[in-house]
Design brief:
By secondary structure, the protein is mainly beta. The protein has one helix and 32 strands. The protein has two domains: 55 residues, no CATH class; 371 residues, TolB, C-terminal domain (Neuraminidase, 6 Propeller).
C-alpha cells in the first residue's frame, strides 16, 4: 500500500473515529429571525445612525459624524435637536454675553476662547464702563483706567493721645474697613496696637492692644488672607533680653485668634519683620543676628506659616554673605516670591534682590539693584502685573542727590532697564512706598523740599517708571509741613488708597492716616 493511498483514507478514518466517540457533525443552523421590517430594529437613538433589517437580522446604522470642532468649540451630535450642534468650550456664567477664558489661560492670550476677566460679575467684561473700584472692569489688563488719585486733605490721628511716641506698623483693607497696626509707648513701655478705620477715614472709638507683656514690642507688619490678618512684630518678652519675631492671626476687628507664636529661637536680635500672603500661606522675613552674635552681623531669615497659623518647617536662612543684610521687604507673584534688602557686601550699602519659589527654594542668585556709590536703604518691592518693581532712597551725605530711586526686574529677576531716579527736588526724598496698579505704579515718599520738616508726596508712574501724573502733596496743614514720614499704602474701596504714616503735627510723634480719592474723567 502506498503512502498516498494511506493519506487518501485519512478523512474517512477521522469520520469513523468521530462516530465511535459519539461526535456528530451537522450543518450550522441559521440564527433565529430578529426582524421583518426596519422599524423593528430602530433603537430610537438618532446620533448612532438609522438601524435596518436585512435578511431578518438588525444591522446597526452609521453614527452621525460632526465636523468642525476647534479649540474653542466642540461640534457634536445633539440627540434632542437631532442634528450636529456647536458648543463653546467656555461658559458665560454671569449671563453678560461674554465668555470666560479657557482654564489655564488669561484674557488676551492665544486660544483663550473668551475674554471675560470675571465671569461672576455682570458689570465686568470687555467694553464695560470702568469704575473706581480697584478692578479691571473692561478686561483690558488695566485697573481703573485713566484714574486720578487726589489727596483728600483730611488726616486723622490713629494712635491715642497717651500713646506717644508712636509709629506705623501696617495697613490692610479687610473688605469693610481698614485694619491698621502701630506701635507706641504707654507707661514707659512700647506695645503694638490695632485699630479699624472706615472707608471714609473715621477711626473706631477704641484701639486694641495686641501685646500685653511688660516688655517692649515694635511693629506690626500686616497681611490679609481674605479671611484673617497675619501680624508679625519684634518682641523682647523672652528672658534672654533679645528681640525675637512673634506672629499671630487677627480677626478683621483685631481680636487675636490664639496665643502669640514665637517664630525665631536664636541668640542675638531678630528684628525688622515683613509679611506677605501667598494665597495659601503666610511668609515672614526678617533680619537675624544668630550667625554672628556680638559682632553686629545680620542675615535674612524666613518662615512659612499656614492659613491656620501652624509653622511649616524651621526658620530658613536666605542670605549668606560676610556683610550685614538688613531690613527686608517681600512680595509675591503667581509662582514665587521676591525679597529685597539693604546689604553691605562690596563696601557701602546697596539694595539687593533675589527670587524664591513659594517653598523658599532659591530661584536666582543675589543681585545688586542700586547703582554703585550710593548708600541705598529703605528697600521696597511689589509685583506689578508682569514685573517686579523696587524702590529705595540714597542716604549718603556725600551723594550729589538724596533722592528716591527705582528699578524693574522681570519675573526671572533679570534687569529690564537701568535704575531710574524718581524724584529731583533740591531737598531730601526718603522712605518710598509702592502700590502696584497693573499698567502703572503709585509711589509715595517723604520730602523736605519746603524746609526742615517733611511732607508726604505721591506720583503715578507707568510700568517703565515714566511719570504719568504731577507730584501731589499728600500731607500739609494750615501751619505748613507736618514732619510726615514712613508712608504705607494699601488699595481701599472704590479705588481709593489708604495711607498710614508717622506725623508730628500735634507736637508728639504719632501714627496718622489719610486717603487718596480715586476719580475717572468722563
Amino acid at each position: 500500500m502506498t503512502q498516498g493511498w494511506r493519506l487518501g483514507l485519512l478523512p474517512w478514518l477521522l469520520l469513523g473515529c468521530g462516530a465511535r466517540t459519539g461526535l456528530v457533525v451537522r450543518d450550522a443552523e441559521p440564527p433565529p429571525p430578529q426582524c421583518a421590517t426596519d422599524d423593528e430594529c430602530d433603537n430610537h437613538v438618532f446620533c448612532d445612525g438609522q438601524e435596518s433589517c436585512r435578511e431578518e437580522q438588525c444591522i446597526a446604522g452609521a453614527p452621525l459624524i460632526c465636523l468642525g470642532s476647534t479649540t474653542c468649540s466642540l461640534v457634536a451630535c445633539d440627540e434632542t435637536a437631532r442634528m450636529c450642534r456647536t458648543t463653546p468650550a467656555t461658559d458665560d456664567r454671569d449671563g453678560d454675553g461674554f465668555r470666560a477664558p479657557r482654564a489655564g489661560t488669561l484674557p488676551g492670550a492665544p486660544d483663550r476662547c473668551g475674554d471675560d476677566c470675571d465671569d461672576n460679575d455682570t458689570l465686568v467684561h470687555p467694553g464695560a464702563v470702568e469704575r473706581c473700584n480697584g478692578v479691571d472692569d473692561d478686561c483690558n489688563g488695566i485697573i481703573d483706567d485713566n484714574a486720578t488719585l487726589t489727596p483728600t486733605g483730611d488726616a486723622v490721628r490713629v494712635s491715642e493721645a497717651a500713646v506717644a511716641p508712636s509709629g506705623p506698623g501696617g495697613v490692610q483693607w479687610t473688605g469693610s474697613r481698614y485694619g491698621v497696626s502701630y506701635w507706641g509707648y504707654d507707661g514707659g513701655r512700647a506695645h503694638v496696637y490695632f485699630r479699624q478705620i472706615d472707608q471714609t477715614g473715621v477711626p473706631s472709638s477704641t484701639q486694641q492692644t495686641l501685646t500685653t507683656t511688660p516688655n517692649d514690642a515694635f511693629g506690626a507688619s500686616l497681611a490679609w488672607s481674605g479671611r484673617v490678618l497675619g501680624a508679625v512684630w519684634q518682641d523682647r518678652r523672652d528672658p534672654s533680653g533679645g528681640y525675637e519675631i512673634y506672629f499671630n492671626r487677627l480677626t478683621p476687628e483685631g481680636e487675636r485668634l490664639g496665643p502669640d507664636q514665637r517664630i525665631s529661637f536664636a541668640p542675638g536680635f531678630s528684628v525688622n519683620p515683613a509679611i506677605v500672603w501667598t494665597g495659601e500661606e503666610f511668609v515672614l522675613v526678617w533680619q537675624d543676628e544668630r550667625d554672628t552674635v556680638g559682632e553686629g552681623g545680620y542675615e535674612i531669615y524666613a518662615q512659612r506659616v499656614d492659613a491656620e497659623g501652624r509653622l511649616i518647617l524651621p526658620n530658613q536662612r536666605l542670605t549668606r554673605d560676610m556683610a550685614n543684610s538688613e531690613a527686608p521687604a517681600v512680595a509675591v507673584n503667581d509662582t514665587g516670591l521676591a525679597v529685597t534688602w539693604t546689604d553691605g557686601r562690596g563696601g557701602g550699602r546697596g539694595v539687593w534682590f533675589a527670587t524664591f519659589t513659594r517653598g523658599l527654594t532659591r530661584a536666582t542668585a543675589d543681585r545688586q539693584v542700586s547703582p554703585a556709590g550710593q548708600s541705598a536703604v529703605g528697600a521696597q518691592v511689589v509685583w506689578n502685573r508682569d514685573r517686579w518693581v523696587l524702590a529705595w532712597f540714597d542716604d549718603a551725605e556725600s551723594s550729589p542727590d538724596h533722592e528716591v530711586w527705582a528699578a524693574t526686574r522681570d519675573a526671572a529677576g533679570s534687569a529690564m532697564a537701568p535704575p531710574r531716579r524718581l524724584t529731583t527736588d533740591p531737598g531730601f526724598s526718603r522712605y518710598p512706598s509702592l502700590l502696584p496698579l497693573g499698567d502703572r505704579v503709585l509711589v509715595a515718599w517723604a520730602d523736605d523740599r519746603d524746609g526742615a520738616q517733611y511732607s508726604l508726596w505721591a506720583r503715578v508712574f507707568d510700568a517703565n517708571l515714566v511719570p504719568l501724573s504731577a507730584e501731589s502733596r499728600v500731607t500739609r496743614t494750615a501751619m505748613g509741613p507736618t514732619a510726615s514720614v514712613y508712608p504705607s499704602l494699601v488699595r481701599g474701596p472704590e479705588g481709593d488708597v489708604g495711607v498710614l504714616f508717622r506725623d508730628q503735627r500735634e507736637g508728639r510723634i504719632q501714627a496718622w492716616f489719610t486717603r487718596l480719592r480715586c476719580a475717572i474723567p468722563r
